[in-house]
Design a protein that fits this description.
- The structure holds 2 protein chains of 2 kinds.
- The N terminus of chain A is likely disordered.
- Chain A is globular.
- Chain A has 2 domains: 562 residues, Cytochrome C Oxidase, Chain A (Up-down Bundle), CATH 1.20.210.10; 52 residues.
- In chain A, helix 5 packs parallel to helix 19.
- By secondary structure, chain A is mainly α.
- Chain B folds into 3 domains: 102 residues, Helix Hairpins; 115 residues, Sandwich (Immunoglobulin-like), CATH 2.60.40; 160 residues, Cytochrome Bc1 Complex, Chain D, domain 2 (Orthogonal Bundle).
- By secondary structure, chain B is an alpha+beta fold.
- In chain B, helix 1 packs antiparallel against helix 2, helix 2 runs antiparallel to helix 3 and helix 9 packs across helix 11.
- Chain B starts with a helix and ends with a helix.
- Classes of the chains: A mainly alpha, B alpha+beta.
- At the A-B interface, helix 4, helix 10, helix 11, helix 12 and helix 13 of A face helix 1, helix 2, helix 3 and strand 9 of B.
């Protein structure tokens, strides 16, 4: 931005608006957008959690009648879709937004307005896909949307009638909208990380969270095209009657499965690597030690991302691909365990010889190591296809991926929230409530998901809305349901803490944890321009160089201590205007453009039923999108 | 300190729980366990799984113990040692890259070996069974024996069963946990799976499931497997291959339409033919295999006067019910001319089965009557029409004004229950 035009007075005046609804609708500040992501994703996390509570209530005992089969199928579809696309990914995005510019010493992301656009598209896409559940019309084909169940022949009209069934249309449209958001954000962050690092911050001096985020952005731009192609095909089958997946016309349903999992498996690493990055910030800070084996941590992250594209068919060992394909995908899957294991051991080695402070974020980070290990081990168990044939599509798999995604991603994200809340709000989350949350969460999680290993190996299939008595599964299901209720209590404690601490939490300074990276060198919450003076970086731990040189004694001698004058904490709060720093102009054009995109897809949804009305709305949306983009691209940034 | 002890105890407790449950898996209270040696297929799977659990447990213990020891030993405490600024250690990092890699080699070799063993061609002399998935029930065909049946599979012990897996609609997955791994049914494709029920198994009953999400009643798409002695199988198959035996004793009055007349005449003639073949004895199910008997309660909101069932007239059931009532549109009964539709399950020997509706309900007269009256009320999404007169159809969202009354349904039930 500094390289762009000098600020006009109007622009500077505009960026001064700091409160009120409009300041949020028109914001282009990466920190505010990060905050919007955080709140929105937490709201969706609660919705997804509520869906889980209903699922577990229905399964508490055999032959329960809490919800109908149709409602249950909508609930498990939406629980998966919500948690993956609307909760965990955007929670990671909240950290990408808030932290990447701060960690690399930049004043914003490369494309602030595109960043706003990503958020608004996510919000509207999330609403589009979630709202139908209030009308019992939510997607019901599973988060994986397997063809041919998702094709018009089996979900196009209500069975036995000609009444249009829209459930899967919302899913197909909503996921495409969300893909636009993810892709726009990914290109933005890649550009930001490549181009906007502070002087001296070489790639191998970047904080580990930024590194893992960097890897994730490449996974996003490589994984979303296949799912987009798959979804466009499916949408054309549903709306225009093409025959990509229509089995009556001879389609091979495995086309969908391959396209979906070519996306779906890298997606797992999209969900977990940001959490790995967050704990890689938390563990060194509270061990008072640099991260053990930084280079290997970077390479293993890249390796996981790379191998992640070669293992998709391990989701398909039961489809009959043949012995050769099964063997290859099995061996590739086992390979992934190696870089993942290295990360686990390096984290433990990071704590070894440290001075460990058991703060709440540290507890969540340690819990990630302990719990993800369990998910990793069960993962190796179904990397072996013959064994997997007894495990796939059973509760054993449900146990496995919840240890990975709850025990891994969610634990890591909570570690990140407790760690960065003081930076985001200027106040600490309450430590006592945090401890209560941690222990309830830890016990609740294990009580919910550990019994599922047993019910699965004892023959309980997944995605069943009910099961018969006397099958040997009753105890495990009841325990899992109690565990879920415990998680409800845990989450309630967290929400209370999260909301309350905004105004009542203890005031945190710029560097409340004695951390090492750049984001802690500025006040909390950071000023809109982040850094009054862009610092020059000499090592991976610039703040330790400055404050506690012995914590980061680097035997290699490659690191150059950072210039102390760059890193002094701001005491007075200046405005960007007073400092003469050009800031991006707040604008609602990205919001308007995002609305256009969603209206366009809304028109497409209506098109099946009412061609004329649908087309009119579709064209209106397209006009808004193009008009919004034109106005946006022809107005200056600052 | 308490917190530290809790953290110490957690992994130990988890391992203890794991071992406890694994040791309990052979017990009868887990009727669908995957830990067994009932087939050569699952013996191979189980051997592999044992190896995975062995190495998995070692890795689990090593990692969790290292983690717990580290956080206790290096917790910050007054007078404790200062943190050391260690950036890494190449030798250590190579060690914990190489050791897991070696463990994986020990897993990978038997894995690949087992893949090729279990996916080889079925051995010669296998009995061929076609499995056809439908939303939401199972069709089983034995092409060499001329048997077509639904939801209940019979296999002789000691002989390999080679399955050809197909589906008429969406994807399903064929899974009998007590026999071996699952295999998906893929539209427009034929998949293969084979296993041999161990020759020393006594005649037994097992549960089968659909393991691939297939729509509303995915949970209700179950089936039963009876592994029986070769002579019992032979008796069962011979009987199942024969046309319907209409064993109703009262001499029929003049049937309403000629087609039915032929049926009744045929069946009267075939009364002398072999009497009912083998079916897995119901009393043995109740005594030894209660877990294969459906416990599904009939949903509230459906009434039927069970007193009518005693007086049901099978002949009227065949004619006014099965033929004129519309059943014939979807259901085949071998020996009844025109009853050849393959939309619904083949009913030729319905009364020899223990379950109906994709294994969801017991096959007895009161349940069958309610099922016929309003299948969609009893099973979400069922494509079987709501037959009962005045019944609300939950899919069409209308009340059926045509249909059969309770009296007529009792006749149909009497007819179907006569199809031994």
């Amino acid at each position: 931005m500094a390289t762009l035009a000098t600020p006009t007075p109007a622009a500077v005046a505009g960026s001064d608006a700091k409160s009120g609804l409009w300041s949020w609708l028109a914001t282009t500040d990466h920190k505010r957008i990060g905050t919007l992501y955080l709140w929105t994703a937490l709201a969706f996390f609660l919705i997804g959690g509520l869906e889980a509570v209903m699922i577990r209530t229905q399964l508490a005992r055999p032959n329960m009648g809490f919800v109908s089969a149709e409602t249950y199928n909508q609930l498990f579809t939406m629980h998966g879709t919500t948690m993956v696309f609307l909760a965990v990914m955007p929670l990671s995005a909240a950290f990408f937004n808030f932290l990447i510019p701060l960690q690399i010493g930049a004043r914003d992301v490369a494309f602030p307005r595109l960043n706003a656009f990503s958020y608004w598209v996510y919000l509207f896409g999330g609403i589009l896909i979630t709202l139908p559940i209030l009308f019992q019309a939510a997607p019901d084909g599973g988060w994986f949307g397997y063809a041919p169940l998702s094709t018009p022949a089996y979900s196009g009209v209500a069975p036995g009638s000609s009444e249009l069934k829209m459930n899967m249309d919302f899913w197909v449209a909503g996921l495409q909208v969300l893909g636009v958001s993810s892709l726009a954000a990914a290109f933005n962050f890649i550009t930001t990380i490549i181009n906007m690092r502070a002087p001296g911050m070489t790639l191998m001096r970047m904080p580990m969270f930024t590194w893992m985020s960097f890897v994730v952005q490449f996974l996003l731009i490589l994984a979303f095209p296949p799912i987009t192609v798959a979804l466009v095909f499916l949408m054309m089958d549903r709306v225009f009657g093409t025959t990509f997946y229509q089995v009556a016309a001879g389609a091979d349903p495995l086309l969908w499965q391959h396209l979906f999992w070519v996306f779906g498996h890298p997606e797992v690493y999209i969900l977990i690597l940001p959490a790995f990055g967050l704990v890689s910030e938390v563990l060194p800070t509270f061990s008072k030690k640099p991260l053990f084996g930084y280079n290997v941590m970077v390479y293993s992250g890249i390796m996981i991302g790379f191998l992640g594209f070669g293992v998709w068919a391990h989701h398909m060992f039961s489809v009959g691909m043949g012995a050769v394909a099964d063997s290859i995908f099995s061996l590739m899957t086992m390979l992934i365990a190696i870089p993942t294991g290295v990360k686990i051991f390096n984290w433990i080695a990071t704590m070894w010889s440290g001075e460990i402070r058991f703060t709440v974020p540290m507890k969540f980070a340690i819990a990630l190591i302990a719990m993800f290990t369990i998910g990793g081990i069960s993962g190796v168990m179904h990397s072996s296809p013959p064994a997997d044939l007894q495990q796939t599509d059973t509760y054993f798999v449900v146990a496995h991926f919840h240890y990975v995604l709850f025990g891994g991603s969610i634990m890591g994200i909570f570690a990140g929230i407790y760690f960065y809340y003081p930076k985001i709000t200027g106040r600490f989350l309450d430590e006592r409530l945090g401890n209560a949350h941690f222990w309830l969460n830890f016990i609740g999680m294990n009580l919910t998901f550990f019994p599922m290993h047993f019910s699965g190996l004892l023959g309980m299939p997944r995605r069943i809305y009910t099961y018969d008595a006397g099958q040997g599964w009753d105890l495990f299901n009841l325990l899992a349901t109690y565990g879920t209720y415990l998680l409800v209590v845990a989450t309630a404690v967290f929400v209370w803490n999260f909301v309350r601490s905004r105004t009542r939490g203890a005031v945190a300074g710029g560097d409340p944890w004695h951390a090492a990276t750049l984001e802690w060198s500025i006040p909390s919450p950071p000023p809109e321009y982040n850094f009054a003076k862009i610092p020059t970086i000499g090592s991976r731990y610039p703040l330790w160089d400055l404050k506690e040189p012995t914590w980061n004694a680097d035997p290699s001698g490659h690191a150059v201590p950072s210039d102390p004058s760059d890193l002094q904490e701001e005491t007075a709060s200046h405005t960007a205007k007073a400092l003469g720093i050009p800031m991006p102009y707040p604008t609602a054009k990205p919001l308007f453009t995002a609305i256009g995109l969603v209206v366009m897809f809304g028109g497409l949804l209506l098109f099946r039923d009412h061609h004329a009305v649908g087309l009119a709305i579709l064209l209106t949306g397209a006009a808004m999108l193009i008009g919004g983009l034109y106005a946006w691209l022809t107005s200056p940034l600052e | 300190m308490l917190k530290l002890r809790l953290r110490q105890a957690a992994p130990v407790a988890l391992v203890a729980m794991l071992l406890l449950t694994l040791s309990a898996c052979g017990l009868t209270e887990y009727p669908n366990t995957t830990f067994h040696h009932n087939t050569e297929f699952n013996s191979a799977v189980d051997a592999l799984f044992d190896r995975l659990v062995f190495w998995g447990t070692i890795v689990f213990v090593v990692v969790e113990v290292a983690l717990v020891v580290t956080i206790i030993k290096f917790r910050k405490r007054p007078g404790g040692p200062a943190a050391k600024p260690i950036h890494g250690n190449a030798a250590l990092e190579i060690t914990w890259t190489v050791i897991p890699a070696l463990i994986l080699v020990l897993i990978a070799i038997p894995t690949v070996k087992t893949i090729f063993e279990t996916q080889a061609e079925a051995p010669a002399g296998a009995i061929k069974v076609e499995v056809i998935g439908h939303q939401w029930w199972w069709e089983f065909r034995y092409p060499e024996l001329g048997v077509v049946t639904a939801n209940e599979l019979y296999l002789p012990v000691g002989r390999t069963a080679a399955f050809e897996l197909k589906t008429k609609d969406v994807l399903h997955s064929f899974w009998i946990p007590q026999m071996g791994g699952k295999r998906d049914l893929i539209t427009n494709k034929t998949n293969h799976l084979w296993f041999t029920p161990s020759a020393d198994l006594p005649s037994s009953a097992w549960n089968g499931f659909c393991a691939e999400y297939c729509g509303s009643s995915h949970a209700n798409m179950k089936f039963r497997l009876y592994t029986v002695q070769p002579d019992e199988f032979e008796s069962w198959a011979r009987h199942q291959a024969s046309p319907a035996v209409f064993s109703a004793t009262p001499a029929p009055a003049t049937p309403v339409i000629p087609a039915a007349q032929v049926t009744v005449a045929d069946s009267a003639a075939s009364v002398a033919a072999p009497t009912a073949g083998y079916a897995f004895p119901k009393d043995r199910l109740e005594a030894e295999f209660p877990h294969v008997i459906p416990q599904t309660p009939i949903p509230a909101g459906i009434t039927f006067d069970d007193a009518l069932l005693a007086g049901g007239d099978p002949v009227k059931g065949a004619t006014e019910g099965f033929l004129l009532g519309g059943c014939i549109g979807c259901h085949a009964i071998s020996g009844v001319p025109g009853a050849v539709s393959e939309i619904g399950p083949n009913l030729t020997h319905l009364a020899s089965r223990h379950t109906i509706a994709g294994g969801l309900y017991r096959n007895d007269a009161p349940t069958l009557a309610r099922w016929i009256k309003n299948a969609r009320h009893l099973k979400p999404g069922s494509i079987m029409n709501t037959i009962g007169k005045g019944e609300y159809d939950p899919i069409l969202k209308t009340t059926n004004t045509m249909g059969l009354d309770d009296r007529q349904i009792a006749d149909v039930v009497a007819y179907l229950m006569a199809l031994k």
